[in-house]
What does this fold into?
Amino acid sequence: MNQKLGITMVFIAAMAWSTAGLFTRVVSTDIPTTLFWRSLIGGLCVLLIYVFREDKIDIKKCFSFSWGEFVIGALSTFGMVCFISSFFYTTIANVSFVYGTMPLVTFILAMIFLRMKADLLSLVSCVMCAIGVMIIMWGVQEFNDVFGIMLAFGMTFFMASLTIAAKYFPEADTTKSTYLSGFLGALITMPFSSFGDTLLIDYAWLAMYGIANLGLGFGVYLFGVQRTTAVTAALVGLTEIPIAPIWAWLLFDEEAGYKTVIGGVVILSATVMYLTMRKTENPAPSKTPSTQGER
It folds into this structure.
């Protein structure tokens, strides 16, 4: 029962994350303003989750961060800025499929910084991901699309770096790092945000953005991942990647080119193959929230 409940909760979280690009299509605010409100509201939501999780409320503890928590929070902030900004320049499909390379980017960084050994499965998966990305880039013609994909790569790199940092600082509380990331994002974008021109309806959408995409996604995932294995959670979480462009197509008639679809299928296949064939290596339930919810 716990396993089924855990999978269901992770899937709900993936659905929440898949809405990330949709909100950028309905608001009329610019990039800094969108980032400010999404970061602030999302950070507050995760802070509430943290307080709810604790047996006794300690305000000092809530806002006291270790060096590891600060590093993870800062990396998450940079990733979030790249992630949200990328939707303003390219399609939701492009961003989603590029993000699908994260497990393999994480592996490459782990080889460099954690001295993880390379194996045939990892190398083949990395080559497949590289081919998938090349196919997506082959179908891109506009400069805005190229810039958006580069931002998506930046987001993927920072999220992968965050995963390595979480391994390097095992004592860090990733929940605290997540709401710290939201507050840092709001702080650095506040000077560039436009508050006077923001419409009331935009405030409503931005509030939903922070609550649904980060608050709901992270909160549900946090409880779901504790009831299933790390690999199962990662595989179920991958459903976010194909769902996001489907939302964009259904709601905004945003079509993905056939090269984007082919490249995305190659990337997803490589990632699923990598995670599935490594399944027996990590059978224990994960007690640490995935970085997926920290964007």
Notes: The CA atoms of residues 175 and 204 lie 25 Å apart. Confidence is low (pLDDT under 50) at residues 280-291. The longest helix spans residues 143-168. DSSP finds 14 helices and no strands in the chain.
